[in-house]
Amino acid sequence: MLSLMIFSYDIIRITCLGGESYVSQTMAQLPYHYGVKVRIFPSNQQKRLIKCNSDASRFIYNEMNGLNRELYQLKQVKIPIGIVQQRIQTLEQRLKNPATGISNSHGWLNDKDLDSLMKANAIKNYRRAWKMFRTVHQAGTPVFHRKRTEQKYQTSCLYPAKVKHPGMTNGSVRLLDHQHIQLPKLGRLRFRGMPAKLLARKPGIRIGTVTISMDATGRYYVSLQLASQHSFVVQTASKAQTSIGIDLNTDNFLTDSNGNVIANPRYYRSVKGKLARAQRKLSRRGLLAKKEHRQLRDAKNYQKQRAVVAAIQRQIANRRNNFLHLVSTTLIKNHDLVVAEELRSKNLLRNHALAMSISDVGWRTFLGMLTYKAALYGKRFVTVNPRNTTQTCYNCDFIMGSGDTQKLSLADREWTCPACDSHHMRDHNAAQNILAKGITA
Fold this sequence. Notes:
Layout: E1 11-15, E2 22-26, E3 32-41, H1 44-75, H2 82-96, H3 98-105, H4 116-136, E4 151-156, E5 174-175, E6 180-183, E7 187-192, H5 196-199, E8 205-214, E9 220-228, E10 243-248, E11 254-256, E12 261-262, H6 267-270, H7 272-291, H8 300-334, E13 337-341, H9 345-348, H10 355-361, H11 363-376, E14 380-384, E15 414-416, E16 423-425, H12 426-440
Parallel strand pairs: 10-13, 13-14
Antiparallel strand pairs: 1-2, 3-7, 3-9, 4-8, 5-6, 6-7, 8-9, 10-11, 11-12, 15-16
Helix pairs in contact: 1-2, 1-4, 2-3, 7-8, 8-11
Domain Probable transposase IS891/IS1136/IS1341: 235-350
Protein name: Transposase, IS605 OrfB family
Organism: Lentilactobacillus kisonensis DSM 19906 = JCM 15041
């Protein structure tokens, strides 16, 4: 499964074209980037190491957050009390060099089973969270990460100075063959799901940040951030240039400007009743465990039912993602220009009557897939303002709601233009208007 990754700033080395000297270059400075997520199959010992590193990463993040909050509270004290000033200096020193400051205060972080690059990435992620808050001001200040069933931590791929041509086979994270990968502290692991086009270009692709994770159902994955001097564009057979506009709606998944309709599979609604029953059973078992004063992590029946609920949710997500991948890949491969309406899911979800249908259909994920696949296949994907695309007649540009006419409601699936008497299928007409806007954009 492919995914977009955040570019890291880990230093790697590349060879200068003019000689044997090296030029330090970050992952973000390399021109082409790619992300890939593969499934791994660790042993029991490797699972223990993954859990240890995940817990340590979460602890370091929370410790930095706690130090920052305490420092903020102490700085509100206006009276120059000596013990307060001394504590402020101690906290500032720890936050200035958290890698050593936190490890010295908590000796267990120096355990040989813990990856040192995991600690560096945890610190970097916390600082990045503050940077995003100052830039965007939407997600709020960093919060404590609570302990969950899922596990995740990040490490980085380092290349020795003697390596003249860094690739996927000679770093601290490297592919041993087409089925095994080497990871720091974990050692050799079997993996599955690497695209063939990446395996064919192993020497020319560098690895940056690596994320090791476990989902709620107990499956383990490795996400690799890749970069290269050469494009990852997939070469496709040249065809006649074609353009297509797509209208997304909840009645059917999409209607294109050629009149083709793709039905809405409604994966969540199809198992909504089964999921609700499983969740009610999980809730009852949780209440029983609390009544008997047992920790949920030690309640075997609760954990069994939690795995059942997680498996149903994973099945829904997998089926939806598979459907979205098939549709988006087909559109991008067969057309040079794909035009869609620009949707703001956050605003649309405020409509409580349609919130479930909008979440179930996965529009935002679908548009993200079209965006990165267009770049991957060397095609063009644009989004346009959806204003009046549904209310405008494609033949004469008459806008419903102007003059003595009324706007079309969601129930009006077919309509006749009062200006030119053209009969329209609502979604097909909207797709044609979207394509026209995209061509002139």
